[in-house]
């Protein structure tokens, strides 16, 4: 009798470990996707997200599932989440561009940024961590130059050390600025994706207010403020207004 109980416990533990194994679930989801059972694959990927599995590839695959089901809002949200974790994810970038070309609201988000926008959005070039790492390298080189200035054996060494130390330290500070802007744009500035098929962009945060325009599924909004169930947002083309919070899925 004890042997049967022991075997039962082993079987139960094995089933629990299998259920918690993300590799097995990822394999099941991929099989379901290949069999065009996109709803099943979506469910498995969602379960992995709920269990705490957070990965660019998972969001990308989930985005493909939603795209195949023509749920463009959720597909756009997943592709954006992919790029937040891996801004060099080429397939997510391409799929997002294709998806945006199919949206009702054509806001030209796939256009190449203007030259001045690279300064305002340095995350398009490097992540905040990479900017910080480069800045730290130049900072330590600057300190090394100042050390040479202090302990140099002759005037030439001290002069070179002083100018190198000052210049490299200033360069490091200048590199920390895009690191901050990159971090702020990605982590502190709220953005979201419209999930409703159609939702009004209001001129004021109230249902009776006049519509500024209509927004449709999949469009990206930039959130400036929040007030009692409303987001104050602006769009890529400069339009602004208020939108009900239940119609938007936040990206942060």
Describe the structure.
The protein has 252 residues and is an alpha+beta fold. It has nine helices and seven strands; from the N terminus they run αααααααααβββββββ. It has helices spanning 2-20, 22-34, 38-50, 56-68, 72-85, 90-101, 117-120, 128-151, 155-188, and strands at 191-194, 198-202, 211-216, 220-227, 230-234, 240-244, 248-250. Helix 4 runs antiparallel to helix 5 (72-85), helix 5 packs antiparallel against helix 6 (90-101) and helix 8 runs antiparallel to helix 9. The termini are far apart. The relative contact order is 0.09. The model is unreliable at 10-19 (pLDDT under 50).
Secondary structure elements and pairings:
Blueprint: H1 2-20, H2 22-34, H3 38-50, H4 56-68, H5 72-85, H6 90-101, H7 117-120, H8 128-151, H9 155-188, E1 191-194, E2 198-202, E3 211-216, E4 220-227, E5 230-234, E6 240-244, E7 248-250
Antiparallel strand pairs: 1-4, 1-7, 2-3, 4-5, 5-6
Helix pairs in contact: 2-3, 3-4, 4-5, 5-6, 8-9
